[in-house]
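Dear H.,

Thanks for agreeing to be a second pair of eyes. The structure we're designing against is below in token form, covering all 256 positions.
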């Protein structure tokens, strides 16, 4: 704690809380854009924050991304004394296997010796196929688990970075660009004002579900994500716990 005071992290947290109107923010030292170990620290801080929020039986819904993957790496078998089930927050949104929520949930379950469920949905399906998917009992069951999660854990990305990384088709890419999207979370793309300009059509958690989830933890670091973080919190629930790094925090405060 003394180290944090000396380095000014506490002050940074207080300033960022008032800028983003959040109640709880954790800032880890460094900038994950520059040093890979900072992402590991984000993972460590997140694992700790998740642990504090566990109850008897837990359902933890998780999104994809490299930050979520670094959280998985920091989970250990002593994570939970009770039952925990990891579920992907949403179906496929075009990520590579290593960045997919299904993969990350499997890793989290393996590392904590807990359980996980998968949600297999192809990325590009017609409305009809999509509707029939929703009627599948096995899928329905996972969807019910997702909406009854007590913890949601998610990343936030830079809009264009994410659109490029995913297999976004030209039409959607244009929509994201022309809508001046700067941030992305859960497959939703936000402009500077926090307005959704594009949404990847998939099943699972929808943005409007978030306010009903008791614990939402957002994890995003690196100065390149400053705009994305700010945009996202224009519309995200203010009870969300943000875990970020000094790089993002300083950039955010600089621009305001
Ligand atoms: O939705 C946001 C992205 O999943 C963030 O991805 O953690 O690899 O930057 P990342």
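And this is the sequence the design step returned. I haven't edited it by hand at all.
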């Amino acid at each position: 704690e003394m180290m944090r005071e000396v380095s000014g992290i506490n002050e940074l947290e207080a300033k960022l809380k008032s800028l983003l109107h959040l109640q709880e923010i954790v800032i880890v030292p460094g900038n994950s854009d520059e040093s890979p170990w900072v992402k590991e620290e984000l993972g460590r801080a997140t694992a700790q924050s998740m642990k504090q929020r566990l109850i008897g039986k837990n359902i933890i819904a998780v999104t994809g991304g490299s930050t979520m993957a670094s959280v998985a790496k920091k989970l250990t078998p002593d994570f939970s004394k009770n039952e925990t089930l990891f579920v992907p927050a949403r179906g496929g949104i075009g990520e590579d296997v290593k960045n997919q929520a299904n993969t990350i949930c499997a890793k989290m379950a393996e590392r904590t010796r807990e359980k996980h469920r998968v949600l297999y949905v192809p990325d590009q399906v017609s409305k009809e196929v999509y509707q029939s998917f929703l009627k599948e009992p096995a899928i329905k069951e996972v969807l019910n688990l997702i909406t009854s999660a007590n913890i949601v854990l998610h990343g936030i990305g830079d809009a264009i970075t994410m659109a490029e990384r995913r297999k976004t088709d030209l039409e959607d890419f244009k929509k994201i660009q022309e809508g001046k999207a700067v941030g992305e979370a859960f497959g939703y793309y936000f402009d500077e004002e926090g307005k959704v300009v594009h949404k990847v059509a998939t099943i699972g958690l929808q943005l409007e579900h978030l306010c009903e989830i008791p614990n939402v933890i957002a994890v995003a670091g690196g100065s390149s994500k400053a705009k994305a973080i700010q945009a996202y919190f224009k519309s995200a629930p203010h009870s969300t716990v943000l875990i970020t790094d000094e790089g993002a925090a300083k950039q955010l405060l600089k621009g305001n």
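Two observations from my side: DSSP finds eleven helices and eleven strands in the chain. The pocket of glyceraldehyde-3-phosphate is lined by residues 63-67, 155-157, 162, 184-185 (CB under 6 Å).

Warmly,
E.
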